[in-house]
Design a protein that fits this description.
10 helices; 7-stranded mixed β-sheet; about 375 residues; alpha/beta
Length: about 375
């Protein structure tokens, strides 16, 4: 039987492993951490009983992924997809396109997910894609946290005959007929230009966030940045004192995230790659700006800067959650083959780039199968 080894159990590594296992290969996935998932992990980062997503939290791309759609996951949709408060109210995005108003600020916030200046072509493409997903599949999240999606992938892999070994770091490329590397490009001798890092906060809260505009409590995702000009300025200078903040509040609909009557929230902003700057005060000031009294509800907080995020998942080099600068060129180039025959890179540093969709792993595995047939 043809033997395959997958290094790393992030969504791309698990996706690639699943494709190879279903094609009849003998597949073993090695994960350095004690739990699988890479960026798909949920842990008690603050207080006992408060479950926080360590990296990713909201997963619209997973809902349209051809490999993830059939997984056994309980997806939660908030009544509104996205809320964007401003100083005089808030804009909402719903799955229906009827009566939806996309302001410049709301669109700028969607573009800012790229981690690049919002006026760049790749950023505009990211913004349009996210809004398109908002009106079709929404921006849902798994009940129980991002770990539920990783666990579903592991179950599917084992059902297909694949094996997962955790606590098993791999320091050099193993010998096998096929090797997929859900790793930083440096592991296979490739370089990539990285984008900004992330500084992330998780809060254990005594109650829900007290939004000035109560409609913000209808959306699992809230963009905090005010005007389009403010957002653009923040993304041109990551780590600015008034950052654009992406916030998630899943416990409003998922009771498994916190003890009864309590809540969790998750938020991050962009900072220079590898930055050691503590953005806790700046992020909380942005929340307080649109939700006066927010700080009074904080029971505990967890702060993860670029170094801590990379320690959780070594693919997040310098805190870059996209595996490299989100540019048009990177989205269409780079490829999955490496200089070594039978070895493929399948992390988010390959097309189509960052996001929880598994498409990098899917593409690398399909290419490996075609090469085997040759």
């Amino acid at each position: 039987m043809t033997r395959a080894v997958v290094v790393g159990s992030g969504p791309n590594g698990l996706a690639g492993a699943l494709v190879l296992a279903r094609a009849g290969l003998d597949v073993v996935v090695h994960e350095a951490a004690e739990r699988p998932g890479g960026g798909l992990r949920t842990e008690e980062l603050t207080l006992p009983g408060f479950r926080h997503d360590v990296c990713s939290a909201i997963h619209p791309l997973a809902r349209v992924s051809p490999l993830f759609r059939s997984l056994d996951v309980d997806w939660i949709h908030s009544p509104a997809v996205l809320a964007h408060p401003h100083d005089r109210g808030a804009d909402l995005v719903r799955r229906s396109v009827a009566r939806t108003r996309h302001t410049h600020a709301l669109f700028a916030g969607c573009c800012a997910h790229s981690g690049q200046p919002v006026e760049r072509p790749a950023s505009r493409g990211v913004g349009l894609a996210l809004l398109g997903l908002a009106h079709t599949v929404g921006w849902p999240f798994p009940r129980g946290g991002a770990q539920a999606l990783a666990d579903a992938l592991v179950r599917a892999l084992r059902d297909a005959g694949g094996e997962l070994v955790t606590g098993s770091p791999v320091e050099e490329i193993p010998e096998a007929d096929v090797v997929l590397c859900d790793t930083p490009p440096a592991f296979v001798g490739r370089r990539v230009r990285y984008g900004p890092g992330a500084f992330k906060l998780d809060w254990a809260l005594a109650g829900p966030i007290p939004w000035r505009d109560e409609r913000c409590a209808l959306a699992a995702t809230v963009h905090l940045g005010g005007s389009a000009a403010e957002i653009a300025a923040s993304e041109r200078a990551p780590g600015s004192p008034r950052p654009f903040v992406i916030l998630a509040q899943p416990s409003l609909w998922d009771e498994s995230r916190a003890p009864a009557g309590r809540h969790t929230a998750w938020a991050y902003c962009h900072v220079p790659n590898g930055s050691e700057r503590d953005m806790s005060e700046a992020i909380e000031a942005q929340v307080e700006r649109f939700a006066p009294g927010f700080r009074d509800r904080i029971l505990a907080r967890s702060a993860l800067g670029p170094a801590e995020l990379e320690a959780h998942d070594r693919n997040l080099v310098g805190g870059d959650v996209n595996g490299g600068a989100m540019t048009v060129r990177r989205l269409v180039s780079g490829g999955w083959r490496t200089a070594r025959r039978g070895v493929y890179l399948c992390s988010a540093s390959t097309p189509p780039g960052g996001g929880v969709h598994g498409l990098c792993g899917l593409a690398a595995a399909r290419l490996a199968l075609r090469d085997l047939r040759k």
